[in-house]
Fold each of these.
Amino acid sequence: MMRSLRWGDAVVVALATALVTTSFALGYAPSGGSTHLVVTQAGMDSRHYPLNENRAIQVEGPAGITEIEIQPGRARCLRSPGNQGICEAAGWLERPGDLAVSLPNRLMLQVRGARSDFDSMHY
Amino acid sequence: MTRSHPHIWLRAVAAPLLLLVAVTGCDRKPETDRLTFQAFGTLVDITVYPGGVHDLTRIESELSEDLEIMHTSWHAWEPGSLGRTNQLLALGGEFSAPPSVLPLIEFAQELEGRTDGLFNPALGRLIAAWGFHQDEATGPPPDAERLEALLADPPRMSDIERRGVRLRGNHPELQLDFGGMGKGFAVARSLDLLADLGVEHAIVNAGGDLMTRGRPGDRAWRIGVRDPLGQSVLASIELGADEALFTSGDYERGYEWEGERIHHVIDPRSGRPSRGLVAATVLHGDPALADAAATTLMIAGPDDWPLYARRLGVEKALVVLADGSVELTPEMVPRVEFRREVIRRIRAAEAGVGSSDP
């Protein structure tokens, strides 16, 4: 036989529900709310750099050194081996999905958000 | 007065706590895994679903080895099966085709006929004359005299006589170059290999051209399409299972010569780099066809690309013009979500200007 809930029961249910909801949100919220630069080089683990401060990065590849410049909210391929300048021509990468590629150095630079916007980039 | 029964309290507290334990007890595995490596002369990016369950080291090892074999076999200017085939074709005698090369020859012969020769992988010498048979093309372009000689009696795929696996070349200038279709074959074979390795849901992306297999759970694959005129995302496209997305663009390989951009997509009619389109994108279930069709549409140019899309059985295609505007087939419209303001026109899959859709 069902018994009617009293106010104390309701408080407990509300508190328990709040506890579960908060735990779920804390446990499953995407980590880091800002965009970051992912540097992927063939045969190596990806490296992630937050786009929150000025920073210069040098990545050595088979064809030489790729220089990457990071400023708050954006990054770019400053110099890279190769006579076509494709990596540099990508300009500032700012929004999730923005991409620069250096094939001579087997390198890909991509801005990603807190959660990945795309499963793959077509270019 | 009714006292609440202890079981009510127990249920009220226990149920959420059990849920909490269940939720926090789960591992936070990534939804998908990605790995990137160099193979087939380009950057290969593999996405597999679900994350955290596949042997990524083995996948990379097996795929890169297989792709390197294909790269060597089909390389247009380095020693390999295709190089040997080109030597034998030039001699004019009958010979047995290497098994790795024969399917590409058959496919190219069929497509050449359907495209009025716009897609013609027999023009390797012309491609080489523009300086694209080296890793870093630098020029110079061929002079007028050389170009005239190359176009006087150009070889065609139909100059290869085929009887089963036996081939004979009937044109001394014929030199195969599968740059406009090899990647499509390679992507298809890589997906088959992934299936052999137990991967049912994946994207194989080779230098930006890609194909899906399966789906990531109950959603579609999300693909970002890079703007050929800049670094940003032009559009997003959702792909289902077994869909290939291939683009041919003037930005992929090329060099500057006396202020002119010389790119690698050569128009067999003029013998010069194609003009009018910056990029042509094809969405199709057959990656080899998508690859070859993208090249064909790029060569066909702004007026004729819908005509050749229809001839190749391509319903979903999109092209970017030099002014940044976009034209697309009606079937492509619902598949594309543009990420920037863009002037777009819908073109039915036949010649003629269609309706505007600003």
Amino acid sequence: MSFEIDVTIERGAARIVANYKVPKGLIALFGPSGAGKTSILDAVAGLLRPTRGRIAVGDTVLFDSERKIDLPPERRACGYVFQDGRLFPHKSVRDNLLYGWKLAAEDQRWMALEEAVDFLGIAPLLDRMPRTLSGGEAQRVAIGRALLRGPKFLLMDEPLSSLDMARREEIMAVILRIRDELKLPILYVSHDRAEVERLADTVIPIGG
Amino acid sequence: MTETEWQIVVLSLRVSGVAILLALPLAFALAWLLARGRFPGKVLLDALVHLPLVLPPVVTGWMLLLAFGANGPAGRFLAETLGLTFMFRWTGAALAAAVMALPLMVRAMRLSIEAVDRRLEGAARTLGAGPWRTFFTVTLPLTMPGVLAGLVLGFARSIGEFGATITFVSNIPGETQTLPLAIYAALQVPGSEGAVTRLAVISVLLSLAALVASEMLARRSGRGGGHVL
């Protein structure tokens, strides 16, 4: 399963042009902040509409301006881990985790709540509310929520940036296990060279 | 409390209750438009919604009379289609109270809609929720404290409504004479200090009850929400 991204995105005065065709594994979009990395993820997720171009993951076309294809975000089968977690503040950790799981079709799910909870070590957090979680805990829950949605690929936007060194190690280990054990294609955004070198199979420099 | 006073309280509650239930969907729709909408004339709509807040209530009552009176365009239309009339009736008092409460309700709801982090809606979409499900599972619960605040503010405003009501539907015992109008009427009669005092105390108690109720509701719905107003 490969990512094929060839788009022009306009945000205000900024213009982002991206054109990559990359193989499977963990692909890192690497570059300084403000280079439009997050915009590219948003475009793949369907949260931002490019002015033109084509986005395909594997053999599924998500967006194609010429053929007038633009799948809504809920039908793109993508698991998006946001930089700031974006857990639903009015739902418990358990309900956050199950939000996408409940909406996924039976044959789309490939992970049960118990598996995700074990995989991420978040069993003690299930009944807590998001605002009581530390940064590392929230990020693990956010990853779990994205995995339980039954995605065909993951988008990760600087998932380590808000964490201290110890938590970083922990989440990095989780990401490596997603890459190697779950074999999920990942599009990963970062501005940290060390992080990218450690995690990525393929590195794509953006801007700068 | 005499039977007449009891009737006044019941009438006041009915007028205010109907008024805010009538205004609720409209207030939410307007709040949504003003918070999220992008269209020409938004400033004008904003001003129109707020007009009853800044106009002398007598003027609002007079305008209601023009529009919803027996010969007013809206009044005639509603009388012919729904058989609904307002003149000298409690329905008119409810309409006046709704119009006066609307700006406060819109303000509270608009603030809470603007306070919703739209990126959470994006997160819900990537998790498989369509626009409507996103609205009902994410946006609406997060705006709930504002909706409740709007309801309470609107209720308090309706219960206290005087100027527009007396102008629009007059002061008729048992039909349009709500608490403030009854207090006003009692004040005109020499030697009725006792009645005035009792009605005033009832007013205070009703307003306090509304505030306490809203506090409790907000606490329950705001559990973990972290959004206040």
